[in-house]
Design a protein that fits this description.
Blueprint (H helix, E strand, L loop, with lengths): L4 H9 L4 E5 H8 L7 H4 L8 E7 L4 E6 L2
Antiparallel strand pairs: 1-3, 2-3
């Protein structure tokens, strides 16, 4: 289990196919802020049916999409 598993489970339990979360929303789910390690851990996400579509540093959001 990785430190990002709570976020992956949150996404897996959503009924949305396309979801954008703010950094603050992600922090509320995880209990800590996103850090650079997210780029490595996001490789786990396909196991939960999602992938990262876009990370916006400007808007401070991460867009996730469900695999078809």
């Amino acid at each position: 289990m990785s430190k990002y598993t709570p976020l992956w489970k949150y996404l897996a339990e959503t009924n949305k196919d396309d979801l954008t979360l703010t950094y603050d929303e992600i922090k509320n789910i995880l209990g800590f802020s996103l850090d650079h390690s997210f780029l490595q851990y996001k490789k786990e996400l396909p196991e939960f049916g999602f992938e990262v579509k876009k990370i916006s540093m400007k808007d401070k959001t991460v867009r996730f999409i469900r695999h078809a």
